[in-house]
């Protein structure tokens, strides 16, 4: 049975939320939506899904396109990589530079362009790096000036080499707009995939590409010689969202999930005379919760503790006299 098509009318009144449709960010994004209780069912081959319990429609898009849709106000909010936002912003700067050079007057009636970062999401960490053959003569970014560079991040690569070329000429204060509009001696070759193969195939002398573990680049005989951007997943919003209150609600829910993923709840009993020492070990996010027990001289303490520290915290609590130490998972939370 063919899936039911979603009409444009069904999107009216809904906040449009862009989600990566595939790749390294998809799975973690879906887990985040589940934790935030954003309930939906995505039919096969459909890139739009209506949320059941909130006036939201999820739009599944390539991560590289999400900053454009959000930045132009076509979509209200989205999850993508910081690298993709920086590439989009570099493209906007290049367009502004071209318009400036052609004396084109901007339309004052256009909605505010661009996107704003709402939250860092804590997954999808990677680096946009300049890579060159490991056994070659290129050991610094400036060694590739005037050479062929393969990349899918054309605008960031252009700004990176524009800055290096200016520095080579003794100019160190070029602003972003002038970097974007500079005519390069370095040739930037746009590639849509398998960028790491460009050097081996003789297409490029070096590349600018995303690196996670570095194993793919190493297998291709490449080595990093510089980092252009450090990246991870972020939640972004339009500068003119259709429903700002709903954007704030989503941000609060997702922020709660992220906090819950980082912390556990530690509970224990301790003599009141030792409470001061124990509170230094478990200060909580604001302060520990302390409750008197029926047994004189004893209190029960609850405090949020970073997951990565919990084993050491339990050891230290035991040393100061804490007993009945429990560690509980947190599924969601609100508040700073």
TrEMBL record:
It comes from the Eukaryota. It catalyses: 1-(5-phospho-beta-D-ribosyl)-ATP + diphosphate = 5-phospho-alpha-D-ribose 1-diphosphate + ATP. GO terms for cellular component: cytoplasm. Its EC number is 2.4.2.17. Keywords: Amino-acid biosynthesis, ATP-binding, Cytoplasm, Glycosyltransferase, Histidine biosynthesis, Nucleotide-binding, Transferase. GO terms for molecular function: ATP binding; ATP phosphoribosyltransferase activity; magnesium ion binding. InterPro entries: ATP-PRT_HisG_long, ATP_PRibTrfase_cat, ATP_PRibTrfase_CS, ATP_PRibTrfase_HisG, HisG_C, N-reg_PII-like_a/b, N-reg_PII/ATP_PRibTrfase_C. GO terms for biological process: L-histidine biosynthetic process. Residues 63-254 form the ATP phosphoribosyltransferase catalytic domain. NCBIfam families: hisG, HisG_C-term. Belongs to the ATP phosphoribosyltransferase family. This is ATP phosphoribosyltransferase. It comes from Lasiosphaeris hirsuta.
């Amino acid at each position: 049975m063919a899936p039911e098509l979603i009409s444009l009318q069904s999107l009216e009144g809904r906040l449009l939320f862009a989600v990566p449709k595939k790749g390294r960010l998809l799975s973690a994004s879906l887990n985040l939506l589940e934790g935030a209780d954003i309930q939906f069912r995505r039919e096969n081959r459909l890139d739009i899904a209506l949320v059941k319990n909130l006036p939201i429609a999820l739009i599944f898009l390539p991560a590289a396109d999400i900053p454009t849709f959000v930045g132009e106000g076509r979509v209200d909010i989205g999850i993508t990589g910081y690298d993709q936002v920086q590439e989009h912003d570099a493209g906007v700067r290049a367009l502004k530079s071209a318009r400036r050079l052609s004396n084109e007057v901007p339309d004052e009636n256009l909605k505010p362009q661009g996107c704003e970062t709402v939250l860092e999401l804590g997954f999808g960490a990677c680096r946009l790096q300049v890579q060159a053959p490991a056994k070659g003569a290129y050991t610094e970014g400036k060694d590739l000036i005037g050479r062929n560079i393969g990349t899918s991040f054309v605008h960031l690569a252009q700004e990176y080499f524009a800055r290096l070329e200016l520095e080579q000429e003794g100019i160190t204060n070029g602003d972003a707009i002038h970097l974007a509009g500079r005519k390069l001696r370095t040739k930037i070759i746009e590639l849509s995939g398998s960028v790491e193969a460009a050097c081996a195939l003789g297409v490029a002398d070096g590349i600018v590409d995303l690196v996670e573990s570095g194993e793919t680049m190493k297998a291709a005989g490449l080595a990093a010689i510089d980092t252009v951007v450090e990246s991870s997943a972020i939640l972004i919003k339009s500068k003119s969202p259709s429903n700002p209150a709903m954007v704030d609600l989503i941000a609060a829910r997702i922020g709660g999930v992220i906090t819950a993923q980082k912390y556990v709840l530690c509970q224990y009993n301790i003599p009141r005379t030792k409470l001061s020492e124990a509170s230094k070990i478990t200060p909580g996010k604001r302060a520990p919760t302390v409750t008197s027990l029926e047994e004189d001289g004893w209190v029960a303490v609850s405090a949020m503790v970073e997951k990565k520290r919990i084993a050491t915290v339990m050891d230290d609590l035991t040393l100061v006299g804490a007993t009945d130490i429990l560690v509980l998972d947190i599924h969601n939370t609100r508040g700073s």
